[in-house]
Amino acid sequence: MTGERRMSTRELLDISLNWFGLNFHWGALLAVVIPSEILRFVSEAEKGTRLAQVLAGGAAIAMVVMPLSGALSDRSQLAMGRRRPFMIAGGILNVAALLLLARAPVLAAFVLSYYLVQFSNNFGGSAYSGLIPDFVPPEQRGQASGWMGLMFGLGTVTAMVSAGLLMRDHRSVVYGLIIGVLLATLVFTVWRVHEARPTPV
Question: Which of 182, 180, 49 has its CA nearest to residue 128?
Answer without folding.
Answer: 182
